[in-house]
Give the backbone structure.
Amino acid sequence: MLELKNIKKSYKTGSFIQHALKNVNLKFRTEEFVAILGPSGSGKTTLLNVIGGLDKYDSGDLIINGKSTKKFKESNWDSYRNNCIGFIFQSYNLISHISVLENVEMSTILSGYSKKRRKKMAIEALEKVGLKDHIHKKPNQLSGGQMQRVAIARALVNNPDIILADEPTGALDTKTSKQIMDLIKEIAKDKLVIMVTHNPDLAKEYATRIIEFKDGEIQNDSSPIKEEENQSDKFKIKKTAMSYASAISLSFNNLKTKKGRTFITSFASSIGIIGIALILSLSNGFKMKIDEFEKDTLSQMPIIITEQGMDLSTMKEMANDKDNLKEYTNKKKVYPLKTVESNIHINKITKEYIDLIENIDDKLIGGLSYARMTSLNILTKTNNEVKMMDSTLFSALPSNKDGSDSAVMNDNFELIYGENSNKKEDLLILVDSKNRINEKLLEALGYKDKKEVKFDDLVGIEFKIVLNNDYYNENNGFFFINTDFNDLYNNDNNLTVTIKGIVRGKKDNIFAEMSGTGILYNKKLMDYIIDNNKESNIVKAQNEKDYNVLTMSQFENDDEKDKTIAFLGGEAVPAAIQIYPKDFDSKDKIIKELDKYNKGKSKEDKIIYMDQSEIMTSLSGSIMDGITVVLIAFSSISLVVSSIMVGIITYTSVLERTKEIGILRSLGARKKDITRVFNAETLIIGLCSGVLGIIIARILIIPTNIIIENLSKLPNVAKLNPVHAVILITISIILTLIGGALPARIASKKDPVIALRTE
Ligand code: ADP
Ligand code: MG
């Protein structure tokens, strides 16, 4: 039972107040066909809208099933419209971008029926109105009468108790009007139908009750309800909700009708995504290349332990501090400055430390070299003149602990001439990529001022290694170098060593590029010299009696003594150690071993190592990160711009779809559902632009890689990380959703009555 009690409704336009309904009192039977007659502007539509809950009355009460609607919430009205009311409008009000079937299905969607059930219900309703064969057409492919039949089917599909028809035949010719009226009459059998018309003939022919309306008031009622009449309370109100899937499908259909615009919008807002995707793939790719490179080469760069060390963090700190010098302080205070000198750590390399290194698993170490300050007493004879060689022209070849050829040598250097049998007598000449060696060395070998020297002229050159006992003469507790070089050269105790081959760093090997040039000797020779010299008089003298050696004074401390002994070939600790890890993992393990030594040691006794590969990679890594961040920041601006653009486009869409908003609301859609529809639209655009952006970026990576390969010889640098792709698509969706959020809210706030009145 439906009852209007003292209903008033007025519209205010500026200072003018239009009283559309003036104190209307009306009761309806649960089953009757009511025609409301009245001139234009008399308030008929307003009355229907108030009855249908589309418009709110100002005062009075609308009683449904004996209950007041004064306390109705939005959601109650939405449910009421959806399952109690079926609207039929003069202008059909069909949603143009979806099919006839989908139009009819719309109210069932809001009622939350299953997809299968919905389709069945819609087809049944369309069968009833005789449109079974037209269900897949779009509304604009139908005639006026057919469109009104669709509207009737839509009003019927949820089997509502009340049908509200606002001049349903107003736009139709007489013959079609009759057919429509017959249809309404037929469906009206067990329902309350309230039909507005200005055609008295139609009213008389079909209605069971005629109410004449004028100036917002009832003039006449042909069949008012008598006191004794009993009406059942059969009207049902059930909650409605549009699922996200339905909102998406509705918006998807709408976007399908605007393919061009959707594509351009998606493309425009994908530009930021493309930019960021490209930057990420480049930096990602470069990082991967650096990683590979690191694993290949840098990891094999030695861990160096020298007498004077500085750790990486201090080095970085100092480098940063230099950059900050442009900032001036106003404080009237003085602060300590970290200097290189004050931060140098003196490494006391001990026997214990050497043992620790010697005990590291062979599998981890590609090569090992100790720099000893030993006196290499080397003589050479060129052009019949014996000369002393400068020992700095000689350096130790990294080798395995047992003195055999190390992986470091084999992997990074190649023998380009001669042979290397790795006997203690074998020496090698290390040249650079252009086959150059230190001028001084060339001069010492007897080729002063020569433009070029044949390999053959170098290979075969012999040197004599003179042992300490022969090299130094003792006199009254002092030791002097034997200056009779010719005599020394021919001493039987000498070891003859020979240049056997020429080695060069392998191509594109940064590690090889970094080692200088010179003569390389192996560990076997080094061991031989130390073995033979540690028993020499001069070392014994040093070791046991604190002898004066040459011009050196008494030793200040043990440390200095050690050094001197080392210098003279005694068994003291080395001055520097280079450990070449086999690979990246080995490096980590070696470092762990080295760190064990420092555990629990005082600051002074700790031994700091320098990890050259870490120094290089930490530099390259942070530069890459910096550049990446800056570029991404730039591209992000375009993301913000596209987000604003999507907002504007969504707002346009809201304006365009105003009518649709009205229709959906009249069918019982909640405000929330309208927000959902537009959020679904922006979600689709966000998804499209994200996916499009990733696809375009993926395509652009191809020429980018070709260009990079041409410039740097590095193939396939740019690589898009799938995780980044997913994140970017998500960002795109979130940003467009944010951009569209405000317009979607505006849409949901639209007054359904005004929305329906817009064309
Ligand atoms: P009818 O359907 O009988 O032609 P309406 O119910 O549409 O009449 O309108 C009744 C009166 O209220 C009219 O004078 C109309 O101009 C006015 N009116 C209706 N809707 C509005 C509105 N949203 N704002 C202002 N005036 C309105
Ligand atoms: Mg009207």
